[in-house]
Each structure stands twice: as structure tokens, then as C-alpha cells.
Amino acid sequence: MTAAPGAAKRKAAARAATGVRAIPSPRYHQVYVTLRAWVRDGTYRPGDQIPTEPELCRMFDVSRITVRKAIEDLSREGWLVRQQGKGTFVQMSAARPAASLDLDEARSQVADLGAATEVRDLVVAEVPPDEETRAALDLPVSAQVQRAAHVRMLRGVPLGLITTFVPLEVAARVSEAEMASQPMFELLAKAGIEVARADQLIGATLAGVEAARALGVEVGAPLLRLTRVVFDVRGKPVERVVALYRADAYQYHMQLRPPAQGRS
């Protein structure tokens, strides 16, 4: 399956118009993260062709070697696939249909975790978003977000480093005192935002310096990484959360049930 003629170029132009070249970051990292974000957020869907190497070079103002390295790394990780003589496409398995979890159940899980743990070291600031947050929240290049980071403590032991990003218009409806007592996922409803759905990814990662210090583990220790983007009823993204949990202290519990009777 390939994209409709011109579709890839239109999408690329739209993304280029957001000013990706204005983001101050190492050039290889900028290309790599942005291409991965395009696959993750559905800008390019399974089977879609991404822009050609010369097009990417012009968009990011980088050399072909830089673009080629980013594509090779993403291909090795399973996000992209090269087709000789045709171009580079989103891997069909890179965005498999997501498993479904009832939104109320997910909200209940977040509330239960919030009730069982305590917040420590809450730091709130208005900052320029990183590339993945900018893409996930569909923000213009000039926008800022509220970044709130805290450590979740369970019986005195660090459990997770939680970082939330919300647009400033959402942040204006929530106080810092509320964030210190309840997860942002719960506070959205109190702020008058009707949540319609959320996209959540769970994977493994290794502790960097900041996470290791916050969680009391060694640099390079295994962590569980949970990312979630929350959408309101208009389909507008209103929150992105990145949670890093200690692999030796956190379990994600799900109950698997048979299909409802009569479902086709």
C-alpha cells in the first residue's frame, strides 16, 4: 500500500511549515526524532512513503549522510523499510492496531495509583516543547507548554518519575496545589475538559542521569516507559505524559476478558 500521489509531499510540507529547522538540537537527532514522531502520531501511516532523501535534506537543511543515518537507524528499529528503486515506507508492523482498554478503567487505574502514592519534588515550568511533544500536541513552533515533573513515592520508595506536558490554555485551569495531590489525567475533567480517548504506549528503556537520580537507581538500570497522549471530544490533544517506572517496583495490571456475547 502506498500513499496517494502527492500526499506524502503535502504532509511533509505541512510539517516543514511548522518550522522544524528552528528547533535547536543536534541535526541527526532532530531528523531521527521528527521522523519517528511522524510515524508514531500517524502523520505517515503503515505503507505510506516518506519524503525522499533529497526532500528531507532540504526540509532539515542537513547533509544526505545525516538523513541516511537517521533512516537506517529507524529501519533497523522497525519503523521504516526501504524498497529498492521505490523509496522508504512506514513499516506495516510499526503501527499495528492498538489493543483497546476502556477509558474509565484507565482513569480508574491512574486514580488508584495516585491514591496509593505520594508526590515528591514537583517542579512546574513553562518551556519550549521537545520535538516529540510538539508533534504529539500538534503545536506551532512558537508555542510553549507547561512541563510538570514529579516523583511518585510508594511507602517511602521512589516508584516513578512522571512528566506531563499540557498546552498553556489547559495549564491555566489547573493549580500547582491540585497537581501535587492528583494526577493531571484526573484534573482534566475538573478543568472542564471532556476526554474522549487516549493513545498509550508501554515499552522498556534505560535510566539516564536525571531518572537515575530521581528514582535512586544506577544509570543504565532498566525502567518501564509509559507514554500517553490524551485527546478531548474535538480530537484536540490536551496532555502528553511520559512516565518512567522502576522495573523492580512497578507492575502494570490488566485483566483479559472474553469478548462480549453477540459481538461479531
What are the main properties of this structure?
264 residues; alpha+beta; Arc Repressor Mutant, subunit A; Chorismate lyase; 2 domains; two-stranded antiparallel sheet; 33% helix; disordered N terminus
Characterise this structure:
- This protein is α+β, with helices and mostly antiparallel strands.
- The protein has helices spanning 7-17, 27-40, 53-60, 64-76, 103-116, 131-136, 168-171, 176-179, 184-190, 209-215; strands spanning 80-83, 87-90, 118-127, 145-154, 157-167, 195-206, 222-232, 237-246.
- The chain folds into two domains: 7-90, Arc Repressor Mutant, subunit A (Orthogonal Bundle), CATH 1.10.10.10; 103-246, Chorismate lyase (3-Layer(aba) Sandwich).
- It is 33% helix and 27% strand.
- The protein has a six-stranded antiparallel β-sheet with strand order 3-4-5-8-7-6.
- Helix 3 crosses helix 4 (64-76).
- The radius of gyration is 20 Å and the shape is globular.
- The two termini are 27 Å apart.
Strand-helix topology:
Blueprint lengths: L6 H11 L9 H14 L12 H8 L3 H13 L3 E4 L3 E4 L12 H14 L1 E10 L3 H6 L8 E10 L2 E11 H4 L4 H4 L4 H7 L4 E12 L2 H7 L6 E11 L4 E10 L18
Helix pairs in contact: 2-4, 3-4
Strand order of the largest sheet: 3-4-5-8-7-6
Tell me what the CATH architecture of the largest domain is.
3-Layer(aba) Sandwich
Order of helices and strands: HHHHEEHEHEEHHHEHEE
In terms of per-residue confidence, which ranges show pLDDT below 50 for 5 or more consecutive residues? 1-6, 16-24
Number of individual domains:
2
Give average pLDDT, whole number.
81
Class based on secondary structure composition and strand pairing: alpha+beta
N→C terminal distance: 27 Å
Number of helices: 10
Principal-axes shape call: globular
CATH superfamily of the largest domain: Chorismate lyase-like
Number of DSSP E strands: 8
